[in-house]
Design goal:
mainly alpha, 4 helices, 0% strand, elongated
Amino acid sequence: MIQSKRKPVRRTAIHKPQRQYLAAILRAFLFGIGADLLLFAGCAAVFSTLPIPNRLVQPTACVILGIGTAVSGAALAAGIGRQRLLCGLACGAFYTICIATASALTGGVVLNEAAIALICVLVFSGMFGSVLTVLRPARSLR
């Protein structure tokens, strides 16, 4: 009987491309949340010191969330390097689901004009952020 000397197969939990995709997703999430936190802190300082009407708080928050989603969409599209518009759409949908879940947990699920506008801003901002990366050369994950 001949016994073959095969090397044992070394199994890793996550292969290299999957690790790179997960790193790109995590980086995009952290960049988006970081941009939101910085902008919210800056606007809170501005709103507390200047005599700005309170009715401008909700539109300002909507714009800040849109900017954070655009940053996240750009970071994900640049990290993955292909299907960039789909990456931005995924970021917008993810943040929309996060906002909807948070409002559902607080019992405030209302689909009024402001909520629909926020959904549109989040989805289109994510796609806009990913479109901004088109001019950069892609570093594809293979």
